[in-house]
Amino acid sequence: MPDVKKVLVRVRVNGEAREAEVEPRTLLVEFLREHLNLAGTHVGCDTSYCGACTVILNGRTVKSCTLFAPMADGGEITTVEGLSKDGKLHPIQEAFAECHGLQCGYCTPGLLLSTLQLLKKYSRPTDGQIRKGIAGNTCRCTGYQNIFKSIRMAAAEMEKR
Amino acid sequence: MYAAPFSYHRAASLQEAVKLLQELGEDARLIAGGQSLIPLMKMRMARPTALIDINFVSELGDIRTPKGELHIGALVRHADLEHSAAGATIPLLHDCAAGIADVQVRNQGTIGGSLAEADPSGDWGTALLALDTSVICFGPGGQRTVPLEDFIKDAYTTVLAHDEIVTGLHVKLPLKGSGGAHLAFKRCAPVYPTASASVQVMIEDGNMCKDARIILGCVGLTAIRAKEAEAALRGKTLEEKNIRTAADAARAAADPQSDMRGSADYKRILVGTLVKRAIGIAARRARGESVEAGHEYAGR
Questions:
Q1: N or C: which end of chain B has fewer CB within 10 A?
Q2: Is B12 on the interface with A (CB under 8 A)?
Q3: Which of B4, B39, B299 sits opposite A48 (nearest CB)?
Q4: Per-residue pLDDT reduced to its tens digit, B149-181
Q5: Considering CB atoms only, which of B2, B101, B104 is closest to A25?
Q6: CB pairs under 8 A between A and B
Q7: Which residues are registered as beta bridge partners of A17?
Q8: Is the Cβ pair A48, B31 closer than 8 Å?
Q9: CATH: 3.30.390.50, 3.40.50.10700, 3.20.20.10, 3.40.50.880. Which one for B178-295?
Q10: How far apart are CA A66 and CA A70, in angstroms?
């Protein structure tokens, strides 16, 4: 049995400094959900495929089921909880609600963050850029058409602001 | 899913990482992006007792272009190359970088990790063989540089000693008149390709192929250099007949296995088609045309 001394992991999550001592094998998604009580990030397939666990780490989307928490030490993290401000939904969240970009909602936290990263890069993404931008996020309800509509609406809304 | 327990060690420098590898022994592994190692650990197919995290070693993340050469640090993420000037200068690198898995994996996975893992389905081991690439390794005896064709020995096997680290690679910049393409076919974004082909051609007088390099991926235990396919083009015009001969030679050179991605016969046919298309795109690029190419999958 190796020496599995706990490791102190310090991060900024949604602008707030947070820390916890965890076993090294703790995945980032478990760190967020079980140690920081931020359960908005979902565990989907748990095999780096579905993207339900997507968060933004240091400005880039990552699958938080495929990172050990100590690897994110010192990092800046945005989770779905960080999207709304002062009780008001983010334009991406509003667009997903408006266009029925979700049914069961399980994949939505990941899709919202992938959309945020996509729209940071392309303020008016083409269909091809949307496809490629959310290729790492699987939805088993919507058939994606309404997600496309949501992303286009969010892009238009965010350009106005 | 939980990985088996391990101790975690953060290396602040290359020297420290090498020292830790020596102290912690054969059951210790380096971790960089972790996009292959972590899934393997979660499935308990890999059970290192110690992980040495090199993500915090600052000198490994650069892309530089000293004269006539491109230097890529081992910790350069696929997404870094996708959006780099180097990818714009050498389209084959962009083809490869922009199509590996999906956005999230490209943001995290590293080029050094991909080569050190030597997965027969990995893209970089195929794409970089089409160029003049050497791998820089650092160990207790200092630094050594190994040509990529000698670096990967077999599936998941490289010449790296246990206490050696890939620190980066050198890629010779292709000359004027040279063009390349990396094409891969996969069933959907997050998976490995079913087959891939990397081609670099040197063109003279509009359509004469002065030199060619043709590499096949996912159809053998390592990437395969299809030398007979190259010979079918060298010194010939790039007309359809010669390209077809090269594609047939590539099919003959492939050594695929049937698996969940397709039967051996299917992969053999597929890889030839990819070679044929890649030659066409490489030739157009050699003539200065801008052509989009890369990984193909439904809905791309």
A1: N
A2: no
A3: B39
A4: 999 999 999 999 999 999 999 999 999 999 999
A5: B2
A6: 100
A7: A12
A8: no
A9: 3.30.390.50
A10: 12
Nearest to A90 by CA among A115, A71, A70: A115
Reported as type and span, the H/E element at residue B103 is helix B103-108
Query: Which pLDDT score, from 0 to 100, does residue A1 have?
Result: 65
Domain B7-53 in this protein, CATH class: alpha beta
Which two tokens mark A79? 């989770």
Residue type, B169: L
pLDDT at position B176 is 92
Strands A16-22, A7-13: pairing kind: antiparallel
CA B4 to each of CA A121, B10, B51: distance values in angstroms, whole numbers, following the listed order: 38, 19, 11
Locus of tokens 């190692």: B37
| Residue appearing with tokens 């003279």 | B204
Query: For residue range B190-247, what is the model confidence (pLDDT) as tens digits?
Result: 899 999 999 999 999 989 999 999 999 999 999 999 999 999 999 999 999 999 999 9
Domain A7-82, CATH number (from 3.10.450.50, 3.40.50.720, 3.40.640.10, 3.10.20.30):
3.10.20.30
Rounded to the nearest 5 percent, the helix, strand and coil shares of chain B are 35, 25, 40
The pTM (predicted TM-score) of the whole model is 0.96
The CA distances from residue B87 to B156, B165, B248, in Å, are 26, 25, 30
The answer to whether residue A129 neighbours chain B at the CB level (below 8 Å) is no
Spatial strand order in the sheet of B208-217: B224-225, B208-217, B195-204, B178-185, B295-296
ipTM over 0.85: yes
State both tokens at A27. 């995945």
| pLDDT digit string, tens, across residues A74-121 | 999 999 999 999 999 999 999 999 999 999 999 999 999 999 999 999
